[in-house]
């Protein structure tokens, strides 16, 4: 579908434009004419179907990498939070997300507990359980991350009942069927004039109030494609195609390795020039099969006094270096999505320490960044309609690979309790333990700071004097 857009960088400095409070007016008729000329061009979305077909649907390594990221991500629990009274939302969000994205588990968890408490908002909690009537939350997460990882685009659609201001259901639209349409005379920066269309028999059309388009940065070389995200598969087509061909070559080699070679009589003297008669060839074949066929004759060396020639007719995958090539391709495919190759059950250098390190790297570099990106989308497009005090987030405490970080966190918090920096209930809140209630703590010791022993001794000494 053709895109029509005005030059977003054109600024009308006329007095009439300056007197208006609507910002720069895009009136570059030359640019509009150019896009009218180019309106027959197809967008890059048509290729995304082919990219998915040749990668995720046909390549086992791509399927494994994407499946690993999305399935691990879908296992993380999500929680609805509510801002504590008097807390500044912008400051809380900025501080927490900065620590989280930097991999600072200690300060991230501590900051979240400082500013937010779990919320009982029924509708938001229901959305996190069943985002729509046909999907569970884990499947919803897999779709949300999977389309973005494959195509560079994610289209989140929210459904609001008539007369309601908040979302009742939300869906992930199929990225490879979506077209971004810039309406007549529209500027891409004028979001209210952009519509999203599903390329289907129904030709469904959505507005920017209904769909939130998340995309990767795209240094597009054509005017029409910059509105779409850049698919990592697009830059890796040759690599994935090579990988596909290596698997095809390997299958072909196994399929045709039944005939290893051709056995014939060697040079002899005589009028026949060394040719075997059909009966002689049949007799040799029977003898050869009898002495070489079967597991017990695997790699057996046979001695003969006959003059014979051997012509090698088949090569194994090892001979063709296919297996080594597949390993190299797998490593490079993993690099596309920041997944350590050890995570695909690679036996190379897969010691216990390497696996533990790889697991942590996998979450910090592949899973959590994608989850943060989708979390930000949900909070911007879905949660904000419920009120600025709400915030949803995923929990990393359940990840085994990050348990070492939690151990360090617990040790540091324990020391802070002993040093009188935080109370025991603050410790329990940060670590998601149930708080000690006043009925079980009449003196409210759990909510009081412990006086460090070094200061307590000094006070006791002064009192005695």
Can you put this structure into words, describing what you see?
This protein is an alpha+beta fold. 43% of the residues lie in helices and 12% in strands. A three-stranded antiparallel β-sheet has the order 2-1-11. Strands 4-3-8 form a three-stranded antiparallel β-sheet. α4 packs across α8 and α9 (237-255) runs antiparallel to α11 (322-336). The longest helix is centred in the last third of the chain and has 30 residues, at 352-381. Mean pLDDT is 77; it is low at 1-44.
Oligomer: single chain
Distance between the termini: 90 Å
Mean pLDDT: 77
Number of helices: 15
Q: Structural class of the secondary elements?
A: alpha+beta
Low-confidence stretches: 1-44
Percent range for helical residues? 40-55%
| Spatial sequence of strands, sheet with the most strands | 2-1-11
Give the biggest sheet: 3 strands, antiparallel
A few lines on this structure:
The protein is α+β, with helices and mostly antiparallel strands.
Task: Give the key terms.
11 strands; three-stranded antiparallel β-sheet; alpha+beta; 465 residues
Q: What does the secondary structure layout of this molecule look like, with pairings?
A:
Layout lengths: L14 H4 L10 H9 L7 H10 L5 H15 L3 E6 L5 H13 L3 H11 E3 L3 H8 L7 H15 L1 E7 L9 E5 L4 E5 L11 E5 L6 E3 L3 E5 L21 H19 L5 E5 L12 H15 L15 E5 L9 H15 L15 H30 L8 E5 L8 H16 L5 H7 L22 H12 L1
Antiparallel strand pairs: 1-2, 1-11, 3-4, 3-8, 5-6, 6-7, 9-10
């Amino acid at each position: 579908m053709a895109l029509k857009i005005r030059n977003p960088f054109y600024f009308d400095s006329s007095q009439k434009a300056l007197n208006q409070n609507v910002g720069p007016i895009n009136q570059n008729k030359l640019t509009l004419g150019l896009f009218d000329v180019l309106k027959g061009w197809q967008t890059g979305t048509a290729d995304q179907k082919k990219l998915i077909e040749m990668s995720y649907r046909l390549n086992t390594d791509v399927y494994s990498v994407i499946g690993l990221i999305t399935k691990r991500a879908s296992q993380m629990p999500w929680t609805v939070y509510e801002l504590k009274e008097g807390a500044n939302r912008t400051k809380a969000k900025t501080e927490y997300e900065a620590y989280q994205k930097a991999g600072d588990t200690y300060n991230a968890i501590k900051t979240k507990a400082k500013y937010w408490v779990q919320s009982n908002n029924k509708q938001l909690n229901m959305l996190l359980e069943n985002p729509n009537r046909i999907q569970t939350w884990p499947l919803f997460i897999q779709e949300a991350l999977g389309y973005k990882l494959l195509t560079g685009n994610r289209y989140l659609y929210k459904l609001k009942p008539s007369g309601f201001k908040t979302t009742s259901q939300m869906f992930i639209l199929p990225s490879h069927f979506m077209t971004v349409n810039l309406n007549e005379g529209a500027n891409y920066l004028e979001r209210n004039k952009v519509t999203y269309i599903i390329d289907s028999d129904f030709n469904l059309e959505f507005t920017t109030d209904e769909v939130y388009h998340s995309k990767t940065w795209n240094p597009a070389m054509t005017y029409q494609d910059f509105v779409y995200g850049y698919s990592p598969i697009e830059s890796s087509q040759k690599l994935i195609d090579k990988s596909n061909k290596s698997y095809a070559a390997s299958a072909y080699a196994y399929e045709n390795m039944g005939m290893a070679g051709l056995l014939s009589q060697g040079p002899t003297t005589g009028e026949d020039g060394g040719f075997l008669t059909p009966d002689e060839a049949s007799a040799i074949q029977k003898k050869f099969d009898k002495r070489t066929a079967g597991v017990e004759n695997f790699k057996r060396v046979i001695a003969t006094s006959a003059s014979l020639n051997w012509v090698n007719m088949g090569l194994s995958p090892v001979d063709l270096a296919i297996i080594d090539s597949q390993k190299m391709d797998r490593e490079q495919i993993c690099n596309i999505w920041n997944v350590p190759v050890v995570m695909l059950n690679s036996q190379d250098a897969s010691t216990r320490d390497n696996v533990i390190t790889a697991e942590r790297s996998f979450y910090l570099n592949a899973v959590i960044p994608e989850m943060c990106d989708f979390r930000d989308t949900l909070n911007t497009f879905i949660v904000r309609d419920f009120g600025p005090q709400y915030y949803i987030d995923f929990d990393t405490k359940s990840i085994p690979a990050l348990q070492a970080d939690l151990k360090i966190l617990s040790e540091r918090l324990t020391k802070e309790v002993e040093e009188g920096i935080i109370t025991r209930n603050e410790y329990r809140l940060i670590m998601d333990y149930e708080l000690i209630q006043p009925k079980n703590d009449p003196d409210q010791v759990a909510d009081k700071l412990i006086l460090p022993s070094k200061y307590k001794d000094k006070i006791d000494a002064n009192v005695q004097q």
